[in-house]
Amino acid sequence: MKLKTRDMILVALFAALTAIGAYLKIPTQPVPITLQILFCMYAGILLGSKLGFISQIIYVLMGLIGLPVFAGGASGFGYIFRPSFGYLIGFILCGYIAGKISEKIYEVKGLKGFMYIFIAAVSGLAVVYLVGVPYLYMIFNVYQGKAIDFGTALKWGLYPFIVQDLVKCFIVALTSVKVLPALRRAGYIARPDKK
């Protein structure tokens, strides 16, 4: 697969933004809000499925090789044994799914465009949880030997985050409905009918 220089720069930018998002915390109860998933959704929607996917793989690989880019400055290959690593796998899939759906949107304007992008963002978010919560459950039960039921996994890994993450989907859709058409007009992203 051959990437243009511009594509490499955009991929690196969104990998870096996702890393920065791990450090940007808004203190809320019961858990603080981080912005990783926000940048992950933007990567898919603004870059498309292929580049969004690659940007998130690079982000995860940066952390696995030892760069302190995960939440709290964590890193290293051992991070795969943490309960939250499943969400990082979900980020990779989110970049692809959100991008794939947004690539199918012909006209991105008005309420209709907003709704399509919102659906793309929520679909990407859903994949993060579909991978993240079972992974959390598995790590606690299999690797750490702490028996929890799936309801507890949902209580720890879904319920505290879902409302704030849906707000992030709303923000992504609200801003992308303006940014995506501009990127298409500038020729950075091909319209689906022009491919």
Please give a structural write-up.
The protein is mainly α and 195 residues long. The protein has helices spanning 5-23, 36-47, 49-64, 85-103, 110-143, 150-157, 162-185; strands at 25-26, 33-34. A two-stranded antiparallel ribbon has the order 1-2. Helix 1 (5-23) runs antiparallel to helix 2, helix 2 (36-47) packs parallel to helix 7 (162-185) and helix 3 packs antiparallel against helix 4. The mean pLDDT is 91.
Distance between the termini: 17 Å
Number of strands: 2
| General form | globular
Measured by DSSP, the beta-strand proportion falls in under 5%
Low-confidence stretches: none
The biggest beta sheet reads: 2 strands, antiparallel
- Average pLDDT taken over every residue: 91
* H-E string: HEEHHHHHH
Share of helix, binned: 55-70%
The number of helices is: 7
Strands of the largest sheet, in order across it? 1-2
Structural class: mainly alpha
Radius of gyration: 17 Å
